[in-house]
Amino acid sequence: MAKKQNRAADMSFLAHIGELRGNIVRSLIAIIIASIVVACFWDFIVDHIIMAPLKSDFATFKFFNFLGNLSGIGDLYTESFDISKDLTNLDPSGQISSQIMAILVCGLIVAIPYVIWEIWKFIKPGLNPAERKNATGTVLAITFFFLTGVLFSYYMLLPLSTQFLFTYDPFKVGNTWTLPKYIGLFVQTLLSMGVIFLLPVFVYFFTSIGLLTPIFLKTYRKHAFVVVLILAAALTPNDVLSMMVATIPLWSLYELSIVVSNNVYNKQLKKEERSLTKN
Hints:
By secondary structure, the protein is mainly α. It is about 75% helix and about 0% strand.
């Protein structure tokens, strides 16, 4: 009898592994298909997306010039520049490796809603019926916060940090960047901020299973601010401007996480009160 139970448990475990493998394979296929689409439009993507934050006519610089004129200061970025023309390559395989990395990362960003849906399909059977009803909302929330982090990084961190670091020249020797270094910076800032922006979603799940409470988040708010500063310094290209730009949304996300945790916690208390009343 015990052998039969162990065999059933083993089959169940193997079935879960097989299901997880299917989710991973389908996710990888989606990323590959999205990457192929990206590769088909490579010329447009490299000119208008990947290299765009390096040019003075990028939307971010125009926006800051607009704010400067609106406040009476004038253009904040007075000189035209195109850092992409100053990039160089010192590695024989640098261009092809940088292109493959950029294509795969862009493919991942395009395919992320489907990838999240596959992950959710694997987790869903282990949830209760009430949690399963929120499947669509959860997938949309994860996709929203991840893409918001990517867009924030693309339109704020990347252009401001690259322009500042490239023009910062206290020793008057000029700066020369390699293509792989810039692509690495491009990938690091976009993906890291996309993941960090999922903080409210993580807090939602941890509060739901009882690992977090709003009281805990409020009590350690000061400690959290220090962690936010460390994260901002680690995720940005080591300049003060980028760190300050990253700190504001990260701290806002923490405060939003407190609101989310408080909402979930109050719903759990009300549910417990109703169950006690019925008994």
